[in-house]
Amino acid sequence: MIPTIIISSITFISVTLSILFFPKIKIGKFSISTYWLIALTGAIILLVTGLAPIKEVWSELTSNTTINPIKIIILFFSMTCLSIFLDEVGLFKFLANFAAKKAKNNQFALFTIFYLLTATLTIFTSNDIVILTFTPFICFFCKNSKINPIPYLVAEFSAANTWSLMLIIGNPTNIYLATSANIGFFDYFKIMALPTLCAGLIEYGVLLLVFFRKLKTPLQIVDEEVHIENKVALFVGLGHLLICLVFLIISSYIHVEMWLISLICATSLLVFTLVMCLVTKKNWTYLTGSLKKLPYPLIPFFLSMFVVVVAINYQGISEKLAEFLSHTNTIWTYGFSSFFVSNLINNIPMSILYSDMCNNNMAVYASIVGSNIGAFLTPTGALAGIMFTNLVNEHQTKYSFLDFIKYGAVISLPIIAVALLTLTLSITF
Fold it and tell me: Would you list the domain boundaries of the chain?
């Protein structure tokens, strides 16, 4: 047990340190993210030493259950592909530009529209995709409008990781924890709708209080026309996303697993795009762009952390942790512990670990709340935080690690309290 604890702890700590101090290494013209390399190294050590028995790991990887990590990866990547396709078509940029024009020179109006737009897109796509798409736009827009980008960046990141609670597809942690407890798409929504709505509304109010002074400054309108050139591709992409969402909602009634539904829809979209490119003899931008932007490092990271958690479970460590957390109010202990643990080891390994620790659905929902809202306490709370800080730095916007924590603490602590309180009411009634 002790060797497993030591190796696992070193792996978790090293991943966190790599995110903070050396996120990438360069090999010639290529740069490689270090967090998944470190996680992979830890997993290999556990496999080689027998602390994570190969038979046990293989059994979990090939199990015909909803918690199978391969199925989780397929579901996440398929939904991500649908979202990235819409981004490649230009939908997100078009909506952001439209919102900026509607606000005219009023920052409060612009702030509100951006918050609502971020929330809406996050619900129906994914928090990671919204962050990847909107962060560069916000940096660019604020620079040209000569306004402070911090209120918009903080609001975007907070909204993306709060409204991602609404649907099971909003975050890979939702997918893993909910499917591990066999919670269906619609059953999930019925419980999480109220906590998400209440947390989101309170969050908007907190953001206005925090940034009230900064939003008083009028903005200069950037007169930029953004058009969607290929409207056929747009409607095809939206059609596939809508069909996918409908079938995900009824998946438990038609007895088809969610990973299979999302895979069929994503494959259909890619095949349709390929045929369209061949028939029209136009460029392959939408197809190649969608495939290039998929977060491939997540695969080795997710599987490596899965191996680490298998080792922890095999040694009985997670069972003892579950006993400790179950002594008092389940929703509050699992909610706050997952909130802080996400920032110690990242919310993906936290979710894998907690999936075996949660002994009832209350613990599952509370852990989902912690995994999402914990993402904006520190940059290490989620992979979205890593992507966000990298994008902000690339666009030469001053937003330090301490700034992230300062705003993150002020916003996330009251929001998780509201979310857990309303979750208690949602489950009770």
Answer: 2-428
